[in-house]
Specification:
Distance between the termini: 6 Å
Number of strands: 7
Number of helices: 0
Largest sheet: 4 strands, antiparallel
Order of helices and strands: EEEEEEE
Helix content: under 10%
Shape: globular
Structural class: mainly beta
Number of domains: 1
């Protein structure tokens, strides 16, 4: 099993980036929702067609476990925090890191 970290930027609360996952380019939106005090993630294909929207980034939870029937990476996106706390604003990429397990 291979694991790599998905790049996140703790200095930004809303941003988009691309990453090659399972040999395919995907785009990701990371959005901090201050109303619910939580980050969410959107996954798009290589031409930015939305595949999944609004996945809550919850620590130690496999984010896409229930979406394997969609055309997304078939591994697991897993946010990890040593203290098992969810990321608050400015903590994704510091206190909480997002990993992908193949």
């Amino acid at each position: 099993m291979a694991t790599f970290e998905i790049p996140t930027d703790p200095t930004l609360t809303d941003y988009q980036f691309s990453s090659v996952v399972d040999g395919v380019v995907y785009f990701f939106d990371i959005i901090y929702n201050s109303r619910i005090s939580r980050y969410t993630m959107n996954i798009m294909d290589s031409v930015k067609n939305l595949i999944i929207s609004g996945i809550p980034i919850l620590t130690n939870v496999q984010l896409t476990k229930n979406y394997k029937y969609l055309e997304i990476p078939q591994g697991d996106f897993l946010p990890f925090s040593a203290d098992n706390e969810n990321a608050e604003e400015g903590e994704l990429g510091l206190k909480v890191r997002l990993y992908y397990n193949v």
